[in-house]
Amino acid sequence: MLERRLISHRRVYFSLFDVVLNVFMFFVVVITLYPFLNILAKSLNDPIDTVKGGITIFPRVFTLDNYRVLFEGGSRLPRAFQVSVLRTVIGALLGVLSCAMFAYPLSRDDFVFKKSFSTLLVITMYVSGGLIPGYLLIRSLGLINSFWVYIIPGLINAFNVIVIRSYIDTIPPSLQESARIDGANDITIFFKIILPLCTPVLATIGLFIAVGQWNSWFDTYLYARGNENLTTLQYELMKVLDSAQTSSRVDIYSESIKMARKNPEAIKMAITMVATLPIVLVYPFLQRYFVTGITLGAIKE
Q1: What is the dihedral of CA 150, 119, 115, 206, to 10 degrees?
Q2: Alpha helix stretches (DSSP H) within 255-296
Q3: Most-buried pick from 48, 112, 137, 149 (CB within 10 A)?
Q4: pTM for the full predicted model
Q5: CB within 8 A of 34, min separation 6: which ones?
């Protein structure tokens, strides 16, 4: 009888705990999603109505005018979108491969210059040449108005190299020794053993690099604005936002209805959605590697 009461109480306790946990998680989901849904609602709401405020997660006066303003600039945005996709894909692939190739010898105890290269790598995390020396270097390399100005300067990142090297350190050295006994050289070991076993951390680092490449616009402003075929989506969206803000300032004096429909706040929300959506769509495919790659690569020596 007593045991039945205890079991009954435990069931009630677990059921109450489950209810509280589910309610808590529901609020966490709401708090997490609300900013994104609010931005989506404002981007789909009439720009004049948005000025009144009070938009939550549903547009009050539905319209696609904000997105139409973004893409009414002719054929430049589709071309900029292609450049952004290309630099994101190529930059992520080459960046991950370069960082992994740098990290592999640093993980080997028999590499003579291991400490020297590791020290130089860490120094680059704290010391930078600055904007002007960086620009002069890019110009002397002949990368101004070249597509490779998006790729080459970002091939090696000290933080990414250290994370990958820490992950490689968790792989038993006996695997490499067994492969070497079977006749494998360093290149074979790297491509056929190290890279396949490092898939979680490589996927995580690839996501870091891809997000950075996708969101970057300042390098276009500095190095590639002289070539219209190399402008990126983010740079074009910044120009659209700047144009909308200028139009808004004109409205104060002209009271032009046409100009008033370019509400900078609404256009900013549309720009945020256009810039964020591709990365949000990619993230679920890499999410399963994310936790493993970060936790196993987080221990640094």
Answers
A1: -30
A2: 257-260, 264-296
A3: 149
A4: 0.74
A5: 57
